[in-house]
Amino acid sequence: MARNLPWVMLIVVVSCLVSTLEASDGDSDPLYKSCVDQCQKTGCVGDTCFQHCKFSADGKAIDGPWYMQEPLYLRWKQWDCQSDCEYECMMTREEERKRNGERPTKYFGKWPLKHVYGIQEPVSVAFSALDLAMQFQGWVSYFILVYYKLPLQPNRKTYYEYNGLVHIYAIIVMNSLFWSSICHSRDVELTVRLDYSSATVLAGFSLILAILRSFSIQDQSVKIMVTAPILAVVGTHILYLNCYNLDEGLHWKVMFGIVGIELVVWGLWAALTSHPSKWKLRAFFISSVLTLCLRMLDFPPYKGYVDAHALWRGAGIPLSYLWWSFVCDDAVFRTTVNLKKSK
């Protein structure tokens, strides 16, 4: 049964893809478009008016003295008259749809989420920040374990041969979660590019780590053979996104492809290994597949705040704890093995 585990979980992933819901774009609604046009002329939607509509794109007052400037933090977040109008008209239109008994719809490819103090996806931001804290806590625990609790070699290096990879992984994953938090706070072009690029680097390095650890690759030439093509794919994808076309659909196809291969590698090792903590590895694999399903699901946000993406971010928090728990166990296991070999 354990040997069939990776393939069973892949079938689950495919099922999640098939179950994805479809939704039409609300931004093509004539009532919504009319609302936005009227708002940009008057600066108001109903009784709600926006200070951004009193300033030009460079932050200078339209009808006021030259020294009147929009607050710098608002200009940095790139909230302007158009974005304010689009958001307010979206929420107004959704309230009308709700009163008429209609289902929520997407606007510009995204579900309507309520903002909190200008933050576009507050729940996703909170979960990404908590996951970042969990990753940092796991990294610190691992650092203390390998350098202060486990024996070291005479040259003060660890006996755990994957120590360097683990430290690099920690830095990459925390960088990715940082930019994820920023992007969920305000998804302008710059933050989206940084979020997509850092996520691609994380996916590529995670695949490298999975292959090197699962197959216990130690030979330097084999490491290069494994790493080079993955880095080439990652580099090409990042260059394409930043220099040619910031294509969200293509980005997620590449991400799902890389993550899918990584899960197969972890799954095969989890099914075949005799590692002392193999149950943690199997739990991590199964949880990763189920978490990936959350990312593939698509449903309207609950109470206007919690959507599938937010749940996916939230599910990553216990997954991070489980991952670092296994890494610490693996460090203890490999240190014990290598210490016996050195004697």
UniProtKB/TrEMBL annotation:
Signal sequence, renumbered to the chain: 1-23
UniProt keyword terms in alphabetical order: Golgi apparatus, GPI-anchor biosynthesis, Membrane, Signal, Transmembrane, Transmembrane helix
GO CC terms: endoplasmic reticulum membrane; Golgi membrane
BP terms from Gene Ontology: GPI anchor biosynthetic process
TM regions (residue ranges): 162-182, 194-212, 224-242, 254-272
Principal location listed in the UniProt entry: Golgi
Pfam families for this protein: Per1
Compartment(s) where it occurs, according to its Swiss-Prot or TrEMBL record: Golgi apparatus membrane
Topology relative to the membrane: Multi-pass membrane protein
Gene Ontology molecular function, alphabetical: hydrolase activity, acting on ester bonds
Homology family: Belongs to the PGAP3 family.
Role of this protein: Involved in the lipid remodeling steps of GPI-anchor maturation.
Protein name: Post-GPI attachment to proteins factor 3
Phylogenetic classification of the source organism: Eukaryota, Viridiplantae, Streptophyta, Embryophyta, Tracheophyta
